[in-house]
Amino acid sequence: MDEEFVFKFLNQNLLGCDLVFSFFTSAVNSLRSDSSVRPFPPMYFKEDGIEKDFNSLRSICNSMPPLRDLPFLPNMEKHIQLLTWLYTKCDPISYTFFTQKFNENEFPLNISGFNPKCIFKINHSSSSEQSWNARKGTFNTSLAFHGSQLDRFYSISRVGLQQIFSTKTNPLFGEGIYLSKHLSTSIIYAPYGAGWINSIIGENLSVVAVCEYIDDISKQRKLKDSRGSTIKGMIVVTDSDYIRVNYLLVFSKKIKSISGNGNIKLIIILLFVFLAIILYSNKFLREFKMFK
Q1: H/E stretch holding 217
Q2: Hey, how many other C-beta atoms are within 10 angstroms of the C-beta on 129?
C-alpha cells in the first residue's frame, strides 16, 4: 500500500516530490537539525520515544536513489516508508511546478533581472484556505519576498513561517517575520545550501518564498534604521497566522536532466568522435605506407 501511495505521488508530481525531499534532506543534515526537522518522522524516535535517531535517518536520506528510479530498485522498504510519511501523512502540501520558461510578466511580483530555475506554486488545502479566509475577513492581502537558509524550508513548508526563524537571524531589528517588496533584498538572506545529491533540480539550491500577508496594521510594525527613519519596501509581520507562503523561487547552480537524455547525447557525440579518430588514423596509416 505504501508503494502505491509513493509511486502515485511521484508519477503525478516528480519535481514537487523532489523539492520536498531536498528540503527534508537539507534539514536532516543541518548542524541545527534538531530544530530544523519539524515535524519529525515518528518511526525514527528511539525506544524511549523522546530521543531522535538522526544517524539512522541520515543514512536513509543519504542513500535515497533518484526518485524516478525508485520503482525499479529492490530493498527500498525503509526508503518508501519515509517517503510515504513525508508525502501523505505529514500534512501533505501540493507543489505545482511552473516551467523554466515561465513568463515573468505573468508573475504577481517583479522578478525581472533574476532567473530562477524553477518556480513552484503551493496549493493550500481547502481547510487551510477556509481558515485563511476567516482570518482575513474584510482586510486586503499583499505579496512580498522572504529569503531564508535552505535547511529552514522543510519546516517553513510544513508549519509555516515562524518568528523564531527571524529573531535568530535579525536580532538587531526585533521580533517579527521580515518581508521585502524587492527580490534583490530578500535573496541576500537566501544563500546557496546543500540539498540532496540526487535531486533532479540541483544539488545546491537557494530559495526565496513569495508570501501573502494580511494587511492588518495591528499585526505589523515598521522597520526603522539606526537614525529612526522608516525603511521603505520592508514589512515586519508580528503574527505567524497572518502570513503564508504562496510561491517558491528556486535557484540552482546546476540543474539535472529529468529524462537523462543529456547523458545519452553526450555518449553518442563521444562515440562519433572516437569513430572519426579511428577512420582518420586508418587513412593516415594507408597513406603513410604508400609514401614509404
Answers
A1: none
A2: 12
Taking only the tens place, the pLDDT of each residue in 223-280 is: 877 787 888 889 999 999 999 999 999 999 865 555 444 455 556 666 666 666 666 5
Q: What is the CATH number of domain 95-252?
A: 3.90.228.10
In angstroms and rounded to an integer, the radius of gyration of the C-alpha atoms of the chain is 24
The per-residue b/e assignment along 230-249, b for 16 or more CB within 10 angstroms, e otherwise, is: eeeebbbbbbbebbbbbbbb
What is the DSSP-derived secondary structure letter of residue 246?
Answer: E
- Cα–Cα separations (whole angstroms), residue 213 to 109, 156, 216, 224: 14, 15, 9, 20
C-alpha cell at 93: 502540501
What is residue 222's three-state secondary structure?
coil
Prediction pTM value: 0.80
Estimate to the nearest angstrom the gap between the alpha carbon of 158 and the chain centroid.
12
State CA 205 to chain mean position distance.
7
